[in-house]
Amino acid sequence: ILVSTKKVVESCNTKINEAIIASRNASYLSTIKNSYYQYLQDGNTRELYTDVTQFLNQQYKYNDMIRSTMLYFVEQPEMVYYTYSNVAGATYSSVWDFMTNEQGAIQKEAETIGTGIKFMNVNGKLYLIRNMVTPNYEPFAVIVMEMNTKTLFEKLQSVVWYVDSMVYMDDSILIDSRTNGVEDYSQYLSKSYAREPYLQDGEEKMVVMSTKIERQHFTYVIKLDKAAIVDENDMIIYM
To answer: Whole-prediction pTM value?
Structure first.
């Protein structure tokens, strides 16, 4: 149980880190920055829109870990450039929800993170936020990605004797348990497991593991089939 949990959590973390790397492409590749500087010189909004949208489509439209990707320039936050991934099950409604319900909170948070990366849970959606900065480290644009939590955490079901799971980021819920309420799992958030899985054997058998990514804690709580585990133990059956 512990070995399979550790492998599965490492797989989930790998996907999260791949999404982080994908977000950095917007800065490492100079397309958006060059297009914006060109716009400041000629004021051609149509060319800017075409260049930025094409870049977002090329980089993120077919990434199944990212439902939608939005970008806005700090000087014009009301103008949102976007793409959404059909392979991740997203539609334009994902972008619309961001612009109408979530952009305000995310915009405030982006102003506080400097050159860092921040995961943020807004209305039950996991967003990755990253500022794009000038050579003087002044933010000129913000890229926001809605993560596909179904794909990020699908491997959790590979833990042996898996029944159910819940994933927390810091103290907020990313994936809700299907069979139990929040209060049944929140007690595990106050414990530190030093990046190693921990087996809790009480009325229910659970395995818990906490990891740290970009200064944020992801805690995985996996409920196991206790009866099936007992059935595997020949000595208990014998006794």
So the answer is: 0.89
